[in-house]
Fold DNA mismatch repair proteins mutS family domain-containing protein.
Amino acid sequence: MASFEIDRQTFKDLDLFNEDGNSIYSFFNNAKTIGGAKKLKELMETPSFDASVLNSRRDTAQYFYRKQLPLPLIKKDVDFIEYYLVLNSPPLQSNIAYATVWNTKTLFSPVPDSYIITEGIKYIHKLLQILNEFNDALTVEDGPASISDFKKTLNSFVTKKEIQKFLSVNSHKKMRYLEFSYYDSLFRKTEIMAMRDLLKLVYELDAYYAIAKAVTDHGFCFPEYDETQHANVQISGLYHPCIKNAVSNDVVINKNKNLFFLTGANMAGKSSFLKALGSAVYLAHVGFPVPAAKMRTSIFKGLITTINLSDNINNGYSHYFSEVMRVKKTAQKILEKDNLFVIFDELFRGTNVKDAYDASLATITALSKIKNNVFLISTHIVEIAAELKAIDNIAFKYFDSKIDGDKPVFDYKLTDGVSSETLGYYIFEKEDIIGLLEQASIKNGHKKRR
């Protein structure tokens, strides 16, 4: 099956999984178990352009968000069960002779693994009680197909005669040897594969509960999918979750305006907006909730961003050559796959103004002729806009800024048009860099005269 197009640079640009904790993944990382956390990351690392996969993931998380069914998993309990099930010693034998030997041994010293076995059985009992109650609360009539699958798996296990008998046992009462040896053999031998399947289900449920919790905790929304072949992205209240008190923006991208030409002063919000949009598109393509009030999107076959590109010392690439190679790679991917969502932040910033102007104009003009993809391109070279005005499918957007007193002020709101503000030199002057250099020059001159 063809895979969703994404690369390491895009993961890095969007801070999807960085290790410092300030990542998009951190807003979902609320799983209670180790296995649940692994399943959650597995889901988030596997974007798709298969509508059935995306709808299933979204609908499953949405079901648990809507129902708020209790699932009180405890990490140490489930971890202990995992440890118990892989115990090296063979399952106990449930017979009178073995019981006599066991009881005799325990009179003089603890039998190796006896604590792990008895505690493992106790924690399984506790988990099965939780799952049994959870299974009773699951309603398949108002849920997606995945809920029916979950219930079928749970029913196939908890309704077994042996399991029902086990659930009726008083877990606070100490079991006799013949009793807990029978259950040890049941769980570590007879039903070991079923126990493995059950734990997989527990981890999947844990992962989906963590996804649903992001909606409750952070106000994310579940995306809706437009399964037509034309580009269509409509987002209300888009924001970047890693920015405290982030300003939200509305975005409309369609087949008639599939290329955004984005301008604005430094610090006006261009890069943050592009990261927020790229993150929302990515999350929608893993079936996760997105940081917005509402989102409807067509399904893309890939996401390529160029936001934090650096030079490549290992390959001997300058920053500009790295940019050129990145644009070339993107062009090859468009040719190969089509229907991509592409972001370029400050295209060709690594070269002189003349070359940047010519290369940017040529690239944007060529991209504008490709209708079945979406392109967002930010630049400081606002002069290009005049030559692009005649191209119908380019939407000109900018982030405004102004000087209030002696300070630059930004509203971080996406606006129609092209930026006319040039705050770069003002900020440079404000920091009095020339004054410092002049003082250094005078100081240096005094030293020489001595």
Observations:
- The mean pLDDT is 89.
